[in-house]
From TrEMBL:
Record protein name field: PilB family type IV fimbrial assembly ATPase
Keyword set, alphabetical order: ATP-binding, Hydrolase, Nucleotide-binding
Protein family (similarity comment): Belongs to the GSP E family.
GO cellular component: plasma membrane
Organism lineage: Bacteria, Pseudomonadati, Pseudomonadota, Gammaproteobacteria, Enterobacterales
SMART domains in UniProt: AAA
Amino acid sequence: MNTAHTATEFIEQLLQKSISQRVSDLHFEPQSEGFRIRARIDNHLYLFPSPSNNCSGEIITRLKILADLNIAEKRLPQDGQFNWFYDEKSYSIRIATLPTLYGEKAVLRLINNLQQPELNKLGFQPVHLVLLKKYLTSPQGMILVTGPTGSGKTLTLYSCLQYLNKDNHNINSVEDPIELPLDGINQTQISEKAGITFATILRALLRQDPDVIMVGEIRDQHTAEIAIKAAQTGHLVLSTLHTNSTRSTLMRLHNLGIAEDLIYSCVNLIISQRLVRCLCQHCKTRLPDKQTVHLRDKVICLPHWQANGCQYCFSGYIGRTAIYDCLELAKQKIPSPFALFSSGIELIKQGITSLEEVYQVVGDIE
């Protein structure tokens, strides 16, 4: 990386390295002297080599030029996007700038435009996959995907849309922003500055003869009410909520002013999910001892996997997969506080992830 003599060379080398190492976000952080470069890989931040002094001052300017941002405006945050081609693949790169004490900070989000989301490859347990497909083929109702930021909710929604993407379905989405262009899907991006909100577009979509509507996120009462109305009137609605469990999702809908009888009559399925890192299959080792977990009134013995780190992964983990909790509201069961952890246990048994990783993502339940 230190061979770069210009900002253009540095950015080119950095993006190539980032793509090859599965970086999702790049942080360009001005310091009192020079820049700190950090990369997020599988939800963990790692320090990358900094640029040489002769090009560090031009890096943010070059990034803003690529994204067609105002290079003279350094006092206000700006958002933009540009396309990058590497190894015969197209990547959509979003940039967000922010003024800080030592200058402008920038964060890049790297998105593979050729990535094709597939429902069968998301990591659902067979029983959950059957349940999801059952309600995806329902002519009306709502499916909610929930979890914190960065838990893979958008990928799950896109995979559902791809599963439904057939010529006999009119599928429409309203998103902020559009993460991945999907052929055959009518995607609309909101713009708060122009007055194009989720509620505005959602209301307009109801006049577009839709079969399926995807709402990127239910953020307020107005959007929630229109989405529920759509689910009531012969449309399949898919959306997300920023909640941490199926139980808290029910509370959130209630707080948004949705009556309990409407929740149970319109919402078919709530999916709560998290992303856990996968053990590197090249270097993981199984230790001779067992690990025990106290779950409900049971003591569960699990294989003890150790993440070592090698030339393929560098950290003992490579890639991520999801763990899920699915609540079918028609059954009116009480949501289990252990469901996500139980999903993680299944992955530990299969040697896909470790108990330490599940604890880190889900939390200690003991």
